[in-house]
Structures are given as C-alpha cells and as structure tokens.
Amino acid sequence: MEPTLFSKIIDREIPAEIVYEDDEVLAFNDVNPQAPTHILIIPKKPIATLNDIEEADLALVGRLQYTAARLARELGFAEDGYRVVMNCNEAGGQSVYHIHMHLLGGRQMQWPPG
C-alpha cells in the first residue's frame, strides 16, 4: 500500500492535533470538522478499505469502536449521543484509503446526514 495522508500523520511527517494515541490506534481532530467535535480514529496498521479487513484484524477494528466510545465519554457527549461513521470506497465517500472512523458529537445529528 502506498503511503497515505494518514500514514504520514502516524509517522509524524504531517502535523495533526492528536487527541489520543496508543500502540495500535491514533485519533486526531479533523481539519474540516462537520460537528463541534469531529475526530478521526485510525489504526496504525494500514488497511485500505473496510473490504480489506481480515479476520486477524477484528480486535483492531473493535479497538477503533472502543476508542470512539471512550473519547465520547471523556469529552462529555456520550450520554447525549454521537455519530460514528466509516466510509468505503469512492461511491461510499472514502477519500483516504486507510480505514478510519469519524466520531462526530456536540450537536443534534440528523438523518439523513447533512
């Protein structure tokens, strides 16, 4: 897999406002936020799309979900509610081919998203 914007952030080649990091996951504020809180949560392991997740990655993908819930609690909007989104491929809205989760909170979400 070619280096992506996200792998460059992981390697500290590109700056980001990091809000959480452990051995497997990195979370940082989105530069184009769609809500008062908009955090991108990424695995440090490069996986291009949701279609590329393998059985060996299940714990890692679960860790992304856990990190989203943990950050929502720590930032104080877990009880009010929040949105977690993952896009897959071009028609699904994916623009960086390194799986990532959007954590959006701090305002009333609508459906369909807009």
Automatic annotation (TrEMBL):
A motif (Histidine triad motif) lies at residues 98-102. The active site is at 100 (tele-amp-histidine intermediate). It holds the Pfam family HIT. GO terms for molecular function: catalytic activity. Residues 5-114 form the HIT domain. This is Histidine triad nucleotide-binding protein. It comes from Salinicola socius. The lineage of its organism: Bacteria, Pseudomonadati, Pseudomonadota, Gammaproteobacteria, Oceanospirillales.
